[in-house]
């Protein structure tokens, strides 16, 4: 990286088209947004394809960018539908696609190379080895794990060759990204599928010195970094990302304006501008601010169990609910158009709603400052609920979404220009599968030797990119030019005009339906193929246990990289490795290989980068590295993996589909107690905890990796499935426990 301070991109959330326009008008350089499926905020309003098309047209006209969020885990039976969505999106030319699933990254690289791939924070990339592994997958930007410290961030950027994006504002998850099963475990609603019910925001009960003590032990404060933006700019962060695709335009407007002020300010203006920005930000109605996980001190304070973890400004309490109305006691102003949310005493939140009518003292009013008011409301509200304002009515200054035109998809052309002393030729590639041959144009030349500088290939490319009034778009121009020749600029432009005059009537306009039939059906056919794997292979049983505990003579003994012995047959690598620990982990892997270990269990993407220099290893995956479809297994196979462990969240159908579509062996996590949350934050609870419904969990701090884990009270136990390898994990469980759960096995993994 160079020492020049550059201006990073300001990236805003957009749950719908109106919010995207509010973000652009308020100063955002780009927005990120999703369709109705396969994005990590499926509970947001999200975009129809028509609205996405309008967004594309507006963004390109106003020199803005937009990124498609496609950042959830996909089941095998969803790949064809996902491929179709990506096909249509490719015609809108998004500036990037944000993905969690390695299989989706591979699909984009293989079938839709025109769309850049960005690694979602849900990939959990948290060190420079993970970034390097992502680069090997063709990823052009990495959105880092939110629990990376500032010191680690600086080192990662210095050692990386691609753009790094970080979150700078908004709600924080307590768990390491992509590793949380909490919501899925208690109700089947997966955070890795965009459907998190936020159990971490609820009240729990833990044993304390005075018996049971209640607290919001896992509810984080909101991230705020206005005061450290100058530091992030100096590090060379490419994009500063605001969280909040569930938020309304008023929230996005105030947050974008605040961060725009600080990003654009000179160093000597920072103190003055910071005060102005904080004032603007005060209208965003978030939780209490913190620096998240920026330092060890921040990690110790980002969780404050005495604080209710609701987002918004407390404005009153519920007095009564009857006959389709809710009666409130207001302490702060309420206005028609404001958006409210109720919070129950146990931390449970209702969905938000917009105030349309206010009644006070028997009259309909536009606003009320305090006292009793009545609002139309027909949903259930927990007794004793508080009322929070999460956004307020504002006057908008952005275009009406209904008035915007849609994006017109035009033929995407690639040109190859060759210039010789006596000839210029241009080859045209339409870039579609219905092209039967490439078009060519040529013209004779009589070029002289250059007296000083020869023909600049960059200038040739720039000139030929200009299509004039033609209804085409040039994606790429490759120029091959004989050295030492001179061409007057006027001649170059004349040749460009002659070229387009010849080519325009000969280019076949893209037939959208024909391309769909030829290209999309081919992609779907390839995705539906089933690899030929021998089912006669003897299945392997692997077992991990506490130190000193026997695992049985018929199973492969799996031990941690930190505690393997002469009896160890397979070493499991630590899923979380901060940048400062990376060198030590690298050395320990080297020691293990020299000690004769030839089997490794990888639990995170970064480990494949560390192992790739070794030959003759047998590499399998394990929790919490997610594998939910055959395309992901294929990508991992290309990276040297011999066997994948099926993601524990899957249902029975998902397990079987993965096994039948995987090009390599598949292992089933048959028995054990996997963690359902892992965090670097300091948690003020230890041992057994329970929620208001009496469900129990275990909280445990690990001195080995300095993480706090939540484990379920029930042990995961799955039935035997034919043709699967098996894994038994006794590190946090015992054999034949009485409280068992099959997790999502017998339900539908949503």
Question: Can you walk through the features of this model?
Answer:
The protein is α/β, with parallel strands linked by helices. The chain has 4 domains: 9-172 and 222-285, Alpha-Beta Barrel (TIM Barrel); 313-403, Elongation Factor Tu (Ef-tu), domain 3; 412-509, no CATH class; 541-741. Strands 29, 30, 31, 32, 33, 34, 35, 40, 41 and 42 form a 10-stranded mixed β-sheet that branches. The chain has an 8-stranded parallel barrel with strand order 1-2-3-4-5-6-7-11, surrounded by 5 helices. A 6-stranded antiparallel β-sheet has the order 9-8-37-38-39-36, with no helix packed on it. Helix 4 crosses helix 17. The longest helix has 16 residues, at 249-264. The protein starts with 8 loop residues before the first strand and ends in a 9-residue tail after the last strand.
Summarize the entry for a quick read:
Strand 23 (412-419) and strand 24 form a beta hairpin. It contains 18 helices and 42 strands.
Q: Keywords for this structure?
A:
750 residues, alpha/beta, TIM Barrel, Elongation Factor Tu (Ef-tu), domain 3, 4 domains, ten-stranded mixed β-sheet, eight-stranded parallel barrel, globular
Number of helices: 18
For the largest beta-sheet, the strand count, sense and barrel status come to: 10 strands, mixed
Q: What count of domains describes the coordinates?
A: 4
| Level-2 CATH architecture of the largest domain | Alpha-Beta Barrel
